[in-house]
Specification:
heterodimer; A: mainly alpha; 18 helices; B: two-stranded antiparallel sheet; 12 helices; 2 strands; globular
Chain lengths: ~375, ~280
C-alpha cells in the first residue's frame, strides 16, 4: 500500500520534470505543490489513486479523463479559463495526508471551495433549510456538490428534468409522487419546458421550509406565477381566472387578508394545494383528481367533515357565474345591478326635486326685500 | 312597552315616538352601523382602505365575529319590534299606521309635482307619510334578505341539506349587494329627510315640532287639532287585554329568542373543527 504511493510520487515527479517544471533540490524537503499533470497520473487510472480517510475507509478516486473538460468548469463550458484540478484541490500536499475523517466529511468541505467563486449562490444557500439542517447536526443535508456534482458540473438549465431528478436523489418518495403528477409527468416524460420542476416552487439555493405559515400563505401567489400568466396558460387552454376567482371567494379572501395582515399568521383556510394536491396534483379532468366533481366532496370533507352532497357545489369551481353556469348567482347579481341603481336613482330624484323646491322658495322669499331696496 | 303614547301636544312638540321605539331605533342605529363597518371591508377586501379597516378592528377573523355579534343584536331588535308591534295592535288597538295605502302613491306624485312647481298645493299626509313608509318597508325587506342570506352564509352545510350548493354563492352575492343598497339608502333617503332638510330630533326626544308636523303629517296634525285622536284604553280594559297579551308575548319572546340562539349556534364551521395543519403534505 505504502509502496504504491511512493511509486506514484516518483512517477509524478518524473512527469513534472519532463514537463519542464523546475523543482530545486532544496525544495525536495518540502512536499512539492501538485499540478494537473501530476494529478492525472494517479487519478485517471494509470495508477491506483486511492484517497484514504481518518476512519480508515479508502475510496478509489478515478475520474474519466475527459470528465472535467466536458463540464461547465472545463474547456467545453469555460473555454476562456478552464479550471484545473488545483483550482479546487490547491491546498493538497503530496503525498496526501488523511485530512478528512470520512468521504462525507470531505464533501461537506467543498462548500467553502465553491464559495470562493460562487459567492452569491453560496450566500443564498447559507439561508436554506438544507444549511439549517446541517447546522442542526444533519450532515446528510445537501451541500453544493450533492446537487451540482463535483467534476461533472453542468449548467442546470441544460436539462430541466435533471433538476427534479437531482432532488429525487434524496427526496425519493416525493419524487415518485411528483413524477406521476400532471407537472411531473409532463416534465419527465415529455420534457415539457413550461411545467414547474422542484425548484420553480421551492426555490433554488435559499430553499425554505415548505411547512411554515409563511410558505402556506404565500403559496397561492406561487401557483399564480404560472396560472395567472395568460401567455403561458393559453398554450394549454387553461383559464387564468383561477387566481382571481380564488381570491374573490371565501377561502381566498381570508387567505389573502391573512397574508396582508401578517404573512406568518396561522390559517386553516384552504390554499390551492389543499384542494388540488401538492406533489400529486392532477389535471382537474383526471379521474384521480381531488377536484373532479365526483371526488370534490371527499376533498371538502378534509376540512368540513359534515359536508353534505350538495355542499361541494357551493364552490363555483373558479368559474364566473353565467346563464349556463351558476345561473342563480348570475341572475341575483343581474337583479341587483338593475335594482340598486333603480332604487337609488328614484330616491335621489325625489331628493333633488325637494332641493329644487327649497332653492326656489328661498329665492321667492328674498324677492320682496330685494324689490324694496 | 308599557309606555302609553301621550297624545297631548305641548310646547315641546307633538308626541311621536315611545321610549321603546326610541330604544329600538338606537339598537338599529348601533347594529346597522356596526354591521356596515364590519361588513363592507369584507366585501371590498381587495381594497387598501378595507385592509386598513380590518387591521384597525383587529383582523378579519375578529371582524367576522363582531359582525355576527352585531347581527345577533339586530335580530334581537327585530324580536323587540315584533313584540312591541303586537302590543300596539292588540293591547293599545292602534291602527296599523305603517301599512301602505293607495294615497301614499298619490301623495308621492303630488309631492314631486309640487317640488317641480307643477302643482301649488302640497298634500296633507298621515302619521307616517310615503317617505317613512318607504324607508320602513325597505328596512323590513332589507333585514329579511340579510337575515335569510346571513343564515345561509353562517350555516352553509345546513343550508345545503335543503337547497342546492349554488344557493351559497347566490346568498353571498345578494348579501353584499343588499348591503350596498341599504347603506346608500340610509346615506341618501334617511340622511336627507331627517338630518339635512331639517334636523328631526323626534327619534331622540320623542316629540316633533308643530311646523314640521304640519308640513309632513298634515292629516295627523289636523286630527290632533280637532281632538280626533285615539285615546289609550281605560285601566280595566287595559288590564283585561294585558292578561291575554302578557303570557302570549312571553311565550312568543322566548320562542323567538330560542330561535335566535338556534340561528347563531346552528353549525360550527371549519373555523372550529380543523386545526391549522391537519391537512397532510404529501
Amino acid at each position: 500500500m505504502r509502496w504504491s504511493r511512493w511509486i506514484a510520487a516518483f512517477v509524478a515527479l518524473g512527469i513534472s520534470l519532463l514537463a519542464g517544471v523546475n523543482i530545486a533540490l532544496a525544495q525536495e524537503a518540502d512536499p512539492p505543490p501538485p499540478s494537473d499533470e501530476a494529478c492525472i497520473v494517479c487519478h485517471t487510472g494509470a495508477l491506483e489513486g486511492y484517497v484514504t480517510f481518518g476512519d480508515g475507509s479508502r475510496v478509489l478516486a478515478h475520474l474519466p479523463p475527459d470528465l472535467l473538460d466536458a463540464s461547465a468548469h472545463g474547456r467545453s463550458g469555460n473555454a476562456d479559463a478552464p479550471l484545473k484540478c488545483t483550482a479546487c484541490h490547491g491546498d493538497y500536499t503530496f503525498p496526501h495526508e488523511a485530512t478528512y475523517q470520512s468521504p462525507r466529511d470531505l464533501r461537506l468541505r467543498w462548500n467553502e471551495t465553491c464559495e470562493g467563486c460562487h459567492t452569491v449562490q453560496s450566500d443564498l444557500t447559507s439561508d436554506s433549510t438544507h444549511a439549517r439542517a446541517r447546522l442542526a447536526g444533519n450532515n446528510n443535508a445537501a451541500v453544493c456538490v450533492d446537487c451540482h456534482g463535483a467534476h461533472n458540473v453542468h449548467n442546470p438549465a441544460d436539462s430541466r428534468p435533471e433538476i427534479s431528478r437531482t432532488c429525487g436523489q434524496c427526496h425519493s418518495a416525493i419524487f415518485t409522487i411528483y413524477s406521476q403528477s400532471i407537472h411531473g409527468a409532463a416534465l419527465l416524460d415529455e420534457g415539457n419546458p413550461d411545467v414547474p420542476t422542484c425548484i420553480d416552487c421551492h426555490g433554488v439555493h435559499n430553499i425554505q421550509d415548505p411547512t411554515t405559515n409563511l410558505f402556506r400563505l404565500r403559496s397561492p401567489l406561487l401557483c399564480a406565477n404560472c396560472h395567472a400568466n395568460e401567455e403561458l396558460m393559453s398554450k394549454y387552454g387553461i383559464s387564468t381566472n383561477v387566481f382571481d376567482s380564488y381570491v374573490s371567494d371565501f377561502h381566498g379572501t381570508t387567505v389573502t387578508l391573512f397574508e396582508r395582515e401578517d404573512p406568518n399568521a396561522e390559517v386553516n383556510k384552504a390554499v390551492c394545494y389543499d384542494c388540488h394536491g401538492v406533489h400529486d396534483i392532477k389535471a382537474p379532468t383526471d379521474a384521480q383528481s381531488s377536484v373532479l366533481r365526483e371526488n370534490l366532496l371527499q376533498t371538502c370533507r378534509k376540512c368540513h367533515p359534515d359536508a353534505t352532497a350538495d355542499f361541494a357545489s357551493a364552490w363555483m369551481g373558479h368559474y364566473a357565474p353565467s346563464p349556463d353556469r351558476y345561473p342563480l348567482v348570475f341572475f341575483v347579481d343581474q337583479f341587483y345591478k338593475f335594482f340598486i341603481p333603480a332604487v337609488v336613482g328614484f330616491m335621489v330624484f325625489v331628493i333633488l326635486t325637494d332641493i329644487y323646491r327649497r332653492i326656489r322658495q328661498g329665492l321667492q322669499s328674498r324677492r320682496p326685500e330685494g324689490g324694496e331696496s | 312597552m308599557t309606555t302609553a303614547q301621550a297624545t297631548h301636544p305641548t310646547d315641546e312638540g307633538i308626541p311621536r315616538f315611545s321610549t321603546v321605539q326610541r330604544l329600538q331605533h338606537i339598537l338599529m342605529l348601533v347594529t346597522f352601523t356596526g354591521l356596515a363597518l364590519t361588513g363592507l371591508p369584507q366585501k371590498f377586501s381587495a381594497q387598501g382602505w378595507a385592509i386598513s379597516m380590518l387591521d384597525l378592528f383587529g383582523g378579519i377573523e375578529f371582524v367576522r365575529i363582531i359582525h355576527r355579534v352585531f347581527a345577533t343584536g339586530m335580530m334581537f331588535g327585530v324580536i323587540v319590534h315584533l313584540i312591541d308591534t303586537l302590543y300596539r295592535l292588540t293591547v293599545m288597538r292602534q291602527r296599523p299606521h305603517m301599512l301602505p295605502r293607495v294615497s301614499d302613491f298619490t301623495d308621492l306624485v303630488k309631492v314631486i309635482a309640487n317640488n317641480l312647481g307643477l302643482r301649488v298645493e302640497r298634500p296633507q299626509m298621515p302619521r307616517f307619510n310615503f317617505e317613512e313608509k318607504l324607508e320602513y318597508w325597505a328596512f323590513v325587506w332589507g333585514t329579511a334578505i340579510m337575515v335569510l342570506t346571513g343564515f345561509m352564509l353562517w350555516n352553509p352545510i345546513a343550508t345545503t341539506r335543503l337547497l342546492p350548493g349554488e344557493a351559497i354563492p347566490a346568498a353571498k352575492t345578494a348579501h353584499g349587494a343588499e348591503a350596498i343598497l341599504a347603506v346608500i339608502a340610509i346615506l341618501t333617503w334617511h340622511f336627507y329627510s331627517v338630518h339635512l332638510r331639517h334636523f328631526n330630533k323626534s327619534m331622540w326626544t320623542g316629540r316633533l315640532d308643530r311646523h314640521v308636523m304640519e308640513e309632513e303629517h298634515g292629516l295627523e296634525m289636523a286630527d290632533i287639532e280637532a281632538g280626533n285622536v285615539q285615546r289609550p284604553p281605560g285601566q280595566t280594559v287595559y288590564q283585561k287585554r294585558m292578561r291575554f297579551f302578557l303570557p302570549i308575548a312571553v311565550v312568543l319572546t322566548l320562542l323567538l329568542i330560542a330561535g335566535l340562539i338556534w340561528f347563531v349556534s346552528f353549525e360550527s364551521t371549519a373555523i372550529q373543527t380543523i386545526p391549522a395543519y391537519s391537512v397532510p403534505l404529501n
